[in-house]
Structure formats: C-alpha cells, structure tokens
Amino acid sequence: MICAHSVPGSRIIRTIMQNRLTDNPPIRLLVLLLMVAMLAISGCARDKRDDDRGPEELYEEAQRSLQGRNYSRAIDQYRRLTTLYPFGRHAEQAQLDMAYAYYRDSQPERALTTLDRFIRTYPTHPNVDYAWYLKGLVHYDETMGFLRRMFPGQVVDRDQTSAREAFMDFQELIRRHPQSRYVADARQRMVFLRNVLAEHEIVVGEYYFRRGAYIAAINRARYVIENYPQAPANINALDLKARAYTRLDLPELADDTRQVLRHNYGDVDIDKEHESMWRRLWPFD
Questions:
Q1: CA distance 184 to 178
Q2: What residues contact 45, with CB distance under 8 A and at least 6 apart?
Q3: Is 206 exposed, middle or buried (0-12, 13-18, 19+ CB in 10 A)?
Q4: What is the H or E stretch that residue 49 is in?
Q5: Residue 102 C-alpha from the chain's centroid
Q6: What single DSSP character describes residue 153?
Q7: Between the chain's N and C termini, which has fewer beta carbons within 10 Å?
Q8: Residue pLDDT, tens place only, 189-248
Q9: 268: left (phi > 0), else alpha (psi -120 to 50), else beta?
C-alpha cells in the first residue's frame, strides 16, 4: 500500500466549513469521505512506522510481554514478527516462544500445532529438543490438570490418551537428544506416566473381573507385565491373574502365578498395596 505522508485534508475541511457549504448534502458527503481518508492515512503511517522496526526490536517487545505474563499480547506480537520477517533466527525462535505462550495461555491445541510445525520446519534447530520437551509438557498437563494435581490418585480412572502422547514425546526427546538438559526431568515424568498407564490397565482389568470377563482381565494383567515390567502395578497384575485363574477353575496356573508373586515381591499385603497406590505411582520427592 502506498501511503501519503501529508494531505491538506484539514485545510480543505476548514475552507468548506468557512464557506458554509455543509448544508449541501453532497458537500457533507465529501467532508465525511475526507475524514475517513485522513483516518486511513494516519493508520497507514502508523503501520509504516511499525514496519520500519527490525525483527530484533519486535522480538524484544514480544519477549517483554511474555516475561510480563501478558500471553495474549505476546502471541500477537510473535505472530506479527513472523509475518513481517518470516526468515531468520528471530522468526525461528519466535515460533518456539509463541508455542510456549499458547501453552501458558491455556491453548494446548494451538501450542501443539505450532510445535509440530516448528519441528517439521526446523528439525536441526539448536532448540528443537525444547520443542519436544514442551510437547510432552502440554500433553502431560492435559493428563493431570489442576484437580488431578490436587487429587492425584484419581488420575488412573481417566482417559489415558494424553498420558500416552506425553510419554511418547518425552521418549522421542530422549531418543533424539540424549544430551539435552531436559532429559532428566523428562525421564522422571516418564516414570510417573508409565506407572499411571500401568495402573490404568489394572483398573480396566478389575472392571472385567467384576463382570466375570476373566479372560479379558488376564489379558490386561499380562499386558501390564509385558509392557511395564518395572511398574509397581505388576504386583496387582499378578494378583489379578491369580484370582482370574482361580475363577476359571485353573488351580495350577493360579498357584504358579502366586509363586511368581511371592518370589518377586515376597509376602505382600495386596490391600495395603491398593491403599498406598499414590506413593507407588509418584516418583518425585
């Protein structure tokens, strides 16, 4: 758009007013059009001043908004930066920071979309490990939520799609960037997610057991043992298998399973194990 820097619109309007021609409808229309044109020119000049700012200045302004926790404003500023200057290190980092702003602004879907685009576009970026880590955090927070953090023992009876996505994101981070500074935290979160996923399978298996679907209960228990070998839920998985075999009138299999349980875990109190489930799930000090 070509913008004029100075237009004698106000002088024309004053002349029209002084000549008392505004009683004429065509003149009133002309005055209105001139006022609209002046506003447009003013806006255009302001846009031009914004366009004159370089990517570094725009990025610093967005950073100030982000640090001030004005996430919606930061998002708008990062978006403007990437629009005006789509190439260069500031535009690259702006996409990553914008994803974080979406995350903190409780817009997980937009955060994930932005992160996926960043990972596809800049797979060798020096901060791409952070993109994988942030993806995991977004899914992790979807798994937990505020109430789940307050009442963590109830997390296992919910849909575990986000937990699986978070686990895979952290796993991908560790596989691709084993030296990343985010790996230690990701591993710890993966322990918790693994325990939750395993315990969820036991919850489903117990549901099948209560309804007499003993084969389905055994399959769930076996899945836990095979896929989450170090999870505390293995105790409950073996106990569930033994009880299901007993109900199926398979005493030898039931006895074998109980022997495995005693050999690996001693004489555990299953009821106490259920009561202390949260202590077994949570790996953080």
A1: 10
A2: 3, 5
A3: middle
A4: helix 25-52
A5: 8
A6: G
A7: C
A8: 999 999 989 999 999 999 999 999 999 999 999 999 999 988 999 999 999 999 999 999
A9: beta
More confident residue, 160 or 260: 260
SS3 label, residue 165: helix
> Which of 20-24, 77-81, 196-200, 246-250 shows the lowest mean pLDDT across its residues?
20-24
Greater confidence (103 vs 29) lies with 103
Tokens for 34?
A: 């001139």
- Exposure of 63 by Cβ count < 10 A (0-12 exposed, 13-18 middle, 19+ buried)? middle
The closest alpha carbon to 193, from 131, 136, 151, 115, belongs to 136
CA-to-CA dists, residue 46 to 9, 35, 90, 217, 266, angstroms: 18, 17, 23, 68, 76
Q: Which amino acid is at 262?
A: R
Looking at per-residue pLDDT, the higher value among 186 and 17 belongs to: 186
Is 217:209 a contact under the CB 8 Å cutoff?
Answer: yes
Q: What is the pLDDT of residues 240-269, one digit of tens each?
A: 999 999 999 999 999 999 999 998 887 666
Query: Residue 269 is encoded by which pair of tokens?
Result: 């109190």
Cα separation, 78 vs 82, in Å, equals 6
Please tell me the predicted confidence (pLDDT) of residue 265: 86
Tokens of residue 54, six digits = 């370089």
For residues 136-161, one letter each, b for 16 or more C-beta atoms within 10 angstroms of the residue's C-beta and e for the rest, the string is: bbbbbbbbbeeebeeebeebbebebe
- For the chain, the average pLDDT equals 81
Residue 244 dihedral angles phi and psi, to the nearest 5°: -70, -40
Comparing CA positions, the residue from 185, 250, 176 lying closest to residue 214 is 250
